[in-house]
Amino acid sequence: MDWNAAYYNNTYYFDKESVPVDKNAVIDFFNHCAPSWDADMIRNEHAIRTILDNGGVRAGIDVLDVACGTGVLFPDYFARGVASLTGVDISPEMAKRAREKFPRAEVICADVEDYPFDRRFDAVMVYNAFPHFPDPGRLIEVLAGLTKPGGRLSVAHGMSREKIGAHHAGAASKVSIGLLDEHELAALFAPWFDVDVKISDDEMYQVAGTRR
User: Contact at 8 Å (CB) between 142 and 114?
Assistant: First the structure.
């Protein structure tokens, strides 16, 4: 599959079908979802523990949560004793709620692909969000630049790839692309990361690696 994307007037056109994903539509969609996001959230505790373990989340490290939403994983990071937590989300309403709920965290409302970060992180986590980024290759390149040497990048979902596809076939179809096969995503990691986690089963999806 060709994941190269063209970009015109704030709209990405990707793969052979030239399906548009407008980042303004992504913002509007998640602003609308924000008030009910926490109430609608379903957590798979075993999958989350595995994802955090594989992502290298542990005491004393600096974490960047990409597309953090309302801060779904923030309590899990704090419970593990991270030194600092930065969340970034493109939706003002999502970021506002995360900031209000978790004043200990630094929450930035911005497009992670454009924001001028002045630091790098020990663990960069993308949880339940990757299909909403229209150019996977560009995102991984940006996140590689935000990961410290020896740090970890993780892209993960707390459900299967098939369930993610079905979930995004409804109201989110205009703001999502198909979730890459784990081997395809690992190939995007390969220029910068040594990939040691490739999971796609009935419970979860995750690709993770260590920054060279």
Answer: no
